[in-house]
Write a structure and sequence with these properties.
- The chain is of the alpha+beta class.
- Helix 1 crosses helix 2.
- Helices cover about 30% and strands about 30% of the residues.
- The protein has a three-stranded antiparallel sheet with strand order 1-3-2.
Length: about 90
């Protein structure tokens, strides 16, 4: 996500395409490049809850990843947020 419209668009696309029921899961990974991507992630998480049929965050973690966004070799390493969402259950409490 790199635009303010993307969180709601992605949430809507997942909602429209995720099978109905409590078992299907959507796995989403977001590279945490800077404050902008962190802000967009928070907007995305809220957009998932604001759907007519909310998608709940069941699990989350952080992973080390490689990024091709920058030009420096050091910029190739990025921390990524990983979230697992479902239609059933209740929101993850942190």
């Amino acid at each position: 996500m790199y635009d303010d419209d993307h969180p709601a668009l992605l949430a809507s696309a997942i909602c429209q395409n995720l099978a109905l029921g409590s078992e299907p899961r959507a796995v989403v990974m977001v590279p945490m490049r800077d404050e902008t991507t962190r802000r967009l992630l928070e907007s995305f998480r809220q957009a998932m809850m604001d759907l007519e049929t909310p998608l709940f965050l069941e699990e989350e973690s952080e992973l080390a990843g490689e990024d091709d966004w920058g030009e420096d070799e050091e910029e190739g390493q990025v921390k990524c947020w990983l979230g697992v969402f479902s239609r059933g259950g209740s929101p993850l409490t942190t």
